[in-house]
Amino acid sequence: MLPSGFRYYTFYECIARNALGEASIKIQLKQGFVPGHIGQVRPNTVTATTIKFSIVPPSNYDGLPIRSYSVQYKPERQPSWENALQHTWSNGKPSAPYIVENLFPEVTYHFRFAARNDVGLGPWSNAPSTTMPRRSVPAEPTVLLPVNLTYKQELAGPYSNHFELRWNVPADNGEPIEYYLVRYCKVRLIERNNGEESEVECSENIQQSVQYTNYPLENLMPDTIYKVELRAHNAIGDSTPATIRIRTARGEPHQYFNYKTDFVGSGCGVICANFRFCFVVILFKLLSYFV
């Protein structure tokens, strides 16, 4: 319904009657407006090619939910907004990331933001201009964990002899990521009183293809603490390491099924067992025949 005048934006009463009585409900018809200016936009994380923003929503939108946010951005040397690039995010969870990608290193950009509801797009609000950093090593990868760990806190691994390391692809900072490097060491406690530790039996830097975002750590020892480091590498160099500590579960070192060896071993056991059974039966029959 589109009211033809402001006088229709008022209170209405809906009444229902039958033989037993009546009931009523009051309804207010209000005029809807586009959202106001966005409260605040702040760049949180800046790499050579990406910016992650935090957005404070507008305070006056008359109860209509914000459906999306839009950003327009252009290089400083471009005078008009007419040919500016634009990106829109649906307004989902409050912690949803608002990230602008594919920017150029060492270029200054201007940004402006607007919110949209069911009525339409609100006014544009300017955000701080940002000069992108120069190309550099990749950002530190983020290891995917079921819980947040503090410094020197250990993740309890579900298995006694292996662990699946998984991570998110970090920003490449202007140069494509070529591969990942994984390194892990046993951690031994030297002094229990002051918590002094040493790293022993460290692996070499294991190179993992950029096509994968996981690496299986195998042949680990049960009930043992391991320090794991993960780096991303591009043409400029290695990122800072993402570091986690895991403690393998108690149990035997070989407590899980390995399709490369266990299947063959199991099959051999069945075959060998059947062979021994058949041999005994044949021998028994031969002895019975001669007796």
TrEMBL record:
<protein>
    <submittedName>
        <fullName>Uncharacterized protein</fullName>
    </submittedName>
</protein>
<keyword id="KW-0677">Repeat</keyword>
<dbReference type="InterPro" id="IPR050964">
    <property type="entry name" value="Striated_Muscle_Regulatory"/>
</dbReference>
<dbReference type="Pfam" id="PF00041">
    <property type="entry name" value="fn3"/>
</dbReference>
<dbReference type="InterPro" id="IPR036116">
    <property type="entry name" value="FN3_sf"/>
</dbReference>
<dbReference type="InterPro" id="IPR013783">
    <property type="entry name" value="Ig-like_fold"/>
</dbReference>
<dbReference type="InterPro" id="IPR003961">
    <property type="entry name" value="FN3_dom"/>
</dbReference>
